[in-house]
Amino acid sequence: MHGLPTALLLAPACVLFALFVVWPIAGSLWLSLHEWNGVGVPAWVGLANYRELLADPVFHTALANNLRWLAGYVLAPVLGLAAALLLNQQIAGMRLARSLFFMPFVISQVVVGLVFAWFFNARFGPLGGFALLDSERWSIYALIVAGLWPQSAYCMILYLTGLASIRPELVEAARMDGARGWALLRHVVLPQLRPVNFIVAMVCVVSALRSFDYVMVMTLGGPHNSSTVLAFYMYEQTFLGLRYGYAATIACVMLALMSGIVGMLLWRLLRLERA
Amino acid sequence: MFPAPIEHASPAARTLYRLAVLATLALWLAPLAAVALTSVRPIEDLNRGNLWGWPSELALLENYAAVLGGSRMGRFIANSFLVTLPAVAGAVAVSALAGFALAKHAFPGNRALLAVFVAGNLVPFQVLMIPVRDLMLALGLYDTRWALIVFHVAFQTGFCTLFMRNFIRALPDGLLETARMEGAGELKVFWHVVLPLVRPAIAAVSVLVFTFVWNDYFWSLVLVQSDDVRPLTAGLQSLRGMWQTSWQLVSAASILAALPPVALFFLMQRHLITGLTFGARRG
Questions:
Q1: What is the per-residue pLDDT for B86?
Q2: Which DSSP category does A34 fall into?
Q3: How many Å from the N-terminal Cα to the C-terminal Cα in chain B?
Q4: Alpha-carbon distance A33 to A35, whole Å?
Q5: Contact in structure between B280 and A195 (CB atoms under 8 Å)
Q6: Beta strands in chain A (DSSP E)
Q7: Pick from B96, B130, B121: which is nearest to A235 by CA?
Q8: What's the pLDDT tens digit per position in B41-63?
Q9: Which candidate in A6, A66, A108 is best for mutational testing of the B interface (most B CBs within 10 A)?
Q10: For a Cys-Cys bond, which of A14, A167, A273, B103 suits B169, CB 3.0-4.6 Å?
Q11: A165 burial via Cβ count (<10 Å: 0-12, 13-18, 19+)
Q12: Cα separation of the two ends of chain A
């Protein structure tokens, strides 16, 4: 009925999104089947990049670190929910307290990374005893701790929104039946927070897989590649290794990982809704 | 309400509660406090190991003047604004138009298109790096602010369109029909009927995009390389190499970099949170 106007309204968004988001995904998939140093014509190599990646120890570290990141970010909803429960009161000054708690999330990850790099700096940092960034075993956890700070703040704000929309009559009825504290939270409040949990899981997965800034600012993947992640290894392979095809292969693994996890979450959500 | 409202508790419990909140906040914000304090310390304090105590003297002016006057910090700040503000305007315009079409026009593939926008936004954006960089080189935009502006508008369009679409969908169809009966075209309907009614959505999308784009680091590394166009996040990291262990300067620069999004957050808190908690609300 509005054929032409509809197309005109949609055109800018569709053109931009197709050109800079959809098409590049296809481009990375295509490039992952080629060897290319950035100049000249990419040479077809089939699945050779994928085979090489499977045997690449740095790739294994990066993948394991992304999974550690994912596992570490499980703490973000826990801390976030705890903070939300603490701050879910209507008294004077509460709004300010919530805002202050949330503040780390609006600060750039570069700044957060700098702050924590300084914290964990052996010689000049205020927590000099914990020179985690120099340790092959611990550096990745120092990065995850830095990331947890703003991530928990985000989870808190999501849970506060969720808590504001739970049905008071259900909580009151459970109270009448004598439910208190933990039991009330577990059996009455948490089930109502299920949609929020889904959103929280999504944002944590997405940001754990995207993590790059902290690595770039705090460790450059070191010492000895011990704190590298997929996004950072891909960046290195592109600009230091000049191996665009190989880098694109790493990108495709990230994409597959993302699709797999998001698919799983969606499937679970749909099953829960049907049940 | 859960937990039980504290105002029904005993006075002692209420005091205890307030103290608990204050203590948690102090601990939570300690990293920021340490940076803020360090940014006003003289270098001697750092050398002496006075990292948590009060600064021995206030070096606020020296440090901030050294950052703004002795480095390209001013240029980087300007670059960040010159990238972020156009990106906000672009993302709002593009997503409002598309959101209107998706919300109020029935056409085959409407749902599918919306799904593409949503899915595209979840992609780990590093996946796009090599092709987007090549595209910017081919378009002659590489190493210009336009490369960043165009890419950010394109990428943010996914989420913003979904947000706008849901907001516009809630507007009563009758309003639009009345305007159409009076002979207004779709663009006129959009401009005179829809836009004035979705101001809150525009505000939410604006602060959200501002925060994301201002804080972006990855694309600032990948799409530009010269100091003349480099935004603050990437600039900060390059200044750190120059300042080495002068953490008082790194801290002052960090505070400056954090200030605009923090100020915007406090000014437009409600809108930012509406945007960020989108999907977490019922209905």
A1: 98
A2: E
A3: 19
A4: 7
A5: yes
A6: 34-35, 43-44
A7: B130
A8: 888 888 777 777 788 888 888 89
A9: A108
A10: B103
A11: middle
A12: 39
Our CA dihedral for B173, B179, B183, B186, rounded to 10 degrees, sits at -60
Domain ranges of chain B: 6-67, 69-276
Provide CATH code, domain A55-274. Answer: 1.10.3720.10
Residue B128 is given by DSSP the state G
CA distance A58 to chain B (A): 18
Among residues A102, A133, A104, which one has the least CA distance to residue A118? A133
A27: chain B residues, CB-CB within 8 Å: 130-131, 134
Amino acid in the structure at residue A128: G
Return the domain boundaries, chain A: 55-274
Which residue's structure tokens are 């960043």? B148
Query: Which amino acid makes up residue A139?
Result: S
Share of chain B above pLDDT 70, in %: 99
Closest residue in A to B187 (Cα) is: A5
Question: Is the interface score ipTM higher than 0.85?
Answer: yes
How far apart, in whole angstroms, are the C-alpha atoms of residue A43 and residue A40? 9
Cis peptide before B196 (omega within 30 of 0): no
Question: What is the CB neighbour count within 10 angstroms for residue B115?
Answer: 12
**What averages of pLDDT result for each successive group of 10 residues across chain A (275 residues)?**
80 96 95 92 93 96 96 96 93 90 94 88 64 86 95 95 89 85 88 90 92 94 92 95 95 94 86 74
Question: What gap in Å lies between CA A106 and CA B261, rounded to an integer?
Answer: 6
CB contacts of A23 in chain B (<8 Å) are 131
On whether the B69-276 domain is CATH 2.40.160.20, my answer is no
Residues 65-84 of B with CB under 8 A from A: none
Q: What is the pTM of this model?
A: 0.93
